[in-house]
Specification:
Blueprint lengths: L14 E5 L3 H13 L3 E6 L5 H8 L3 E5 L9 H11 L5 E6 L4 H8 L5 E5 L6 H12 L3 E3 L1 H9 L11 H11 L4 H8 L3 H15 L7 H12 L2
Parallel strand pairs: 1-2, 1-3, 3-4, 4-5, 5-6
Helix pairs in contact: 4-10, 6-7, 7-8, 7-9, 8-9
Length: 225
């Protein structure tokens, strides 16, 4: 099971739908999810009918391609925006062939429970399934390659004032990592991470919001083109 379990209490598997116009990719994703104990409720070749499916099937998450028929431009993003406009809180993991920062920022702008990953990440099943569980739980996920591109091409002089360690912390912040996750990844104490984050926020002029999604979005918007 992906979801954390409580002794003596069995948790139902996450209910997930897949929307991608590639049959091969949908089949691959479904195989990965089923192998990790998730329940694949539907597999769609477009975003048509997604809103009704989310409402009728009580989905926990949707894996949604950004570019789908009919124009292969931003149909997935439009579907995400429509879901949020309708009040749907289902987790949505956007998939893309390309590391496009503007798409990531647009996706994250709709609120928590949203992620943006490159399709290459499917090759790492554990991380891919963890990303789905994260958005299903209301968290945020941003592909490391997108974040690396943004941090590597600073859009403000303030970014150049960060120390190497602060840049490492910033990179993990932008990926949606919690303070505890950053501490674990960098082998630092939680207090040290909090100190670094306070310094980063001050240098970049970002309000230190307690909401992790708002923090991720603020960082992406600052770093974005």
């Amino acid at each position: 099971m992906v979801a954390e379990t409580v002794p003596g209490v069995e948790r139902a598997p996450l209910r997930v739908a897949i929307a991608d116009d590639s049959l091969l990719l949908r089949s691959g994703i479904e195989t990965v999810l089923l192998a990790h104990g998730l329940d694949v409720v539907a597999s769609l070749d477009s975003a048509a009918g997604l809103s009704e499916l989310v409402e009728d099937e009580h989905l926990d998450a949707v894996v949604l391609d950004i570019r789908m028929p009919p124009t292969h431009t931003d149909e997935g993003l439009v579907a995400l925006e429509q879901l949020r406009a309708a009040g749907a809180t289902v987790g949505v993991l956007m998939l893309s062939m390309y590391a496009t920062p503007s798409y990531a920022i647009r996706a994250m702008s709709v609120g928590g429970g949203t992620g943006y990953l490159l399709k290459d990440r499917i090759a790492d099943p554990s991380s891919f399934v963890h990303a789905i569980a994260t958005v299903a739980g209301g968290g945020s996920v941003v592909d490391p390659e997108v974040v690396a591109h943004l941090v590597g091409t600073p859009s403000s002089s303030a970014l150049s004032t960060l120390t190497p360690r602060e840049r490492e912390v910033l990179t993990l912040m932008a990926q949606g990592k919690s303070n505890g996750g950053i501490a674990s990844g960098l082998f630092l104490s939680l207090k040290t991470v909090e100190t670094h984050i306070g310094s980063i926020m001050a240098k970049l002029g970002i309000d230190d919001s307690p909401g992790e999604h708002r923090r991720v979005l603020a960082v992406l918007r600052l770093l974005g083109p």
